[in-house]
Amino acid sequence: GRVFDRAELDLVADLCRRWDALCVSDEIYEHIVFDGRAHVSPASLPGMRERTVVVGGMAKTYGVTGWRIGFVVAPPLLTRAIQTVHDFVTGGAPAPLQAAGVRALSLPADHYRRLRAGYQERRDMLCRGLERLGFECPVPEGGFFLLADGSALGRGDGAELTTHLIETAGVAVLPARAFSANGSCGSLVRVCFARSEATLAEALARLGALDRVRI
């Protein structure tokens, strides 16, 4: 949930220019940023357009994960190399879904403002609810996942806590170690708030009904 600010991106750009390095920028969450923050692509910074590969897609912003539609924006030489590899590792996306993707990319700015507002409301709702139950929840700056620390609840391992919540409350989370290179994340679990407010309220109610989520 971290959103780099302009100063941090300027540092990345300076290192890329100094060492003649490429920047691969995963911008799948470009429209899902909160609290007045703005997405800045490294490709927009001075001297970076010719050395940045921007990766984006439909899945997160438009809620169509099953479509598997994405795109890359890069300098012509890199684009040709990417196309060559792409031809050998995957097939083409269905034409109707590509047409729908073009339509989606043409949506007005107001659509994205409503999208951000809706996600921010659900983020705040889930963070407040989990904190009342004893979790520690750093507030994410973007995306629709948060990391909740359940160490104060008596379960020191995220996988153990995940199993407990699924089996006793029917609430699914994921241990954060599944997303860690070294697998060491203590009792951190990843929680998704890309659900309706009613579903999130039900999940919080189920957790609150446990004798010890407070375990």
Please characterize this protein's 3D structure.
With 215 residues, this protein is α+β, with helices and mostly antiparallel strands. It has 2 domains: 6-107, Type I PLP-dependent aspartate aminotransferase-like (Major domain) (Aspartate Aminotransferase, domain 2, 3-Layer(aba) Sandwich), CATH 3.40.640.10; 110-208, Aspartate Aminotransferase, domain 1 (Alpha-Beta Complex). The protein has 7 helices and 6 strands; from the N terminus they run H-E-E-H-E-H-H-H-E-H-E-E-H. The strands form 2 sheets. It has a 3-stranded mixed sheet with strand order 1-2-3. A 3-stranded antiparallel sheet has the order 4-6-5, with helices on one face. Helix 5 (109-132) runs parallel beside helix 7. The radius of gyration is 20 Å and the shape is globular. The model has no long low-confidence stretch (mean pLDDT 92).
In short:
By secondary structure, the chain is α+β, with helices and mostly antiparallel strands.
Features:
single chain; 215 residues; alpha+beta; Aspartate Aminotransferase, domain 2; Aspartate Aminotransferase, domain 1; 2 domains; three-stranded mixed β-sheet; three-stranded antiparallel β-sheet
